[in-house]
């Protein structure tokens, strides 16, 4: 599966992203509902591009200094009546904070991925990191905007490092001789 390296904990992180805030259902920052009826026998191609207001909302959600741009092209195909396979190509530009220098820097984000939309309650308990992530949906609508936001979150480097940032190495401390403390106790004659 493309993006398999990040897939291991993807379901757990996705569950966190779907959580409620204050007991109210979460309103997606990037909302692009698609009726399943639009997906024909040859599939459906769809592009999601975040507006500046949506980028600002994603900035707050992702707790980043800035999300400058996010777009994702999708190709949707039906695996069966209710299961939709989505292949996507995410591109974005974000500002992250370097874990070494604590300076903000702009970084590109790009990820090719594949997910399955499945009816709510039919998700598998498969923990195989190579299997496709499943995104539950209700009714006859899937949200490609929320899928884009989730993939952005999964594609971000958890330990961003500004190009050229280095840790200064401390000078190695000379180990003290094990009996050095005893020499201070000895009278000087």
UniProtKB/TrEMBL annotation:
It comes from the Bacteria. Pfam families: YceD. Residues 1-25, 159-189 are annotated as: Disordered. This is DUF177 domain-containing protein. It comes from Rhodopila globiformis.
